[in-house]
Amino acid sequence: MRKPFIAANWKMNKTVPEAEAFLSEFLPEVSNVTDADIVIAPPFTALKTVGEKLKGTNVILAAQNVFYEEKGAYTGEISPSMLLDAGCSYVIIGHSERRQYFNETDEIVNKKIKTALKNGLKVILCIGESLAQRQEGKTNDVLKEQLTNGLKDVDIENIVIAYEPIWAIGTGVTATPEQAEDAHSYIRKEISSIYGNKAEALRILYGGSVTPDNVNDLMTCPDVDGALVGGASLKPDSFSKIVKFKRTGG
Ligand code: PGA
User: Which residue's CA is minimally distant from atom 3 of ligand 1?
Assistant: First the structure.
């Protein structure tokens, strides 16, 4: 049984006071939740403060990005040890916005994953196809390529995968549960062809316009183990509703 994993990706939103205001409402709302991993990825500038507030709670800190070198003359970049120092357990790597706006290739993603894992961070690896790729019937090819190149020479033990179809991110168009399950079961199959049994324990999150209204249906899919939530994670009320999605038991 895979423990559900519900993560907030705040992207470039929230100052420190805004992050604090969110937590003072959100943390009491979810303090009784023990059957899911709850994760928040604030912007770098709020990591330290949010990390302090999360100490002793049931909510885990993540970063949205990391560099693939450990230290040195890389103006503007952030290293794994800096993230650990701020209290991060996870880092999101390969988000489509980073691939699209910051030219992150699978090769860069792979280097970042290796440095993050080597330094003791766990990784949320994002993959997903564009609308054009889906319409051309290339979804599985794209997923396979991102998985094989992104995870080259990497052990998946400390990895969570987020399937985020680009056409569903921030658009209000969610993948149907069938589309999500098709992609997730394909991802698990590909992972098992490389890693064998370990694929069974791998958590695969869905991301792309997840809301309190669609989370229950998505979470009933056998291979959907959680959600990576952007827009709907910015309000304590909607994100706590997503965290408290309806468990079906079993
Ligand atoms: P969204 O973003 O929930 O706003 O679609 C998801 C993501 O990019 O992780």
Answer: 230
Establish if 249 belongs to a structural domain: no
183 lines ligand 1 (CB under 6 A): no
For position 113, what pLDDT does the model report? Answer: 98
Asked if 124 contacts 109 with a C-beta cutoff of 8 angstroms, the reply is no
CATH code at position 111: 3.20.20.70
Span 38-45, mean pLDDT? 98
pTM: 0.97
Return the pLDDT at 62: 99
Q: Which residues are catalytic?
A: 95, 164
What percent of the chain lies above the pLDDT cut of 70?
99
What's the domain count of the chain? Answer: 1
> Which of 215, 229, 238, 241 maximizes ligand 1 atoms within 8 Å of its Cβ, making it the mutation to test the pocket?
229
Q: Which two tokens stand for residue 221?
A: 């899919």
Q: Rounded to an integer, what distance in angstroms lies between the CA atom of residue 239 and that of residue 110?
A: 30
CA atoms within 13 A on the CB side of 207: 32
Q: Is residue 250 in a domain?
A: no
- The answer to whether position 134 is within a domain reads yes
Residue 77's domain spans which residues?
Answer: 5-243
Distance, CA 211 to ligand 1 centroid (Å)?
A: 10
pLDDT of residue 249 exceeding 70, the answer is no
Q: Do the domain assignments include residue 248?
A: no
In whole angstroms, give the CA distance from residue 109 to residue 204.
Answer: 18
Q: What is the mean pLDDT of residues 163-177?
A: 95
Task: Name residue, tokens 């599985």.
Answer: 140
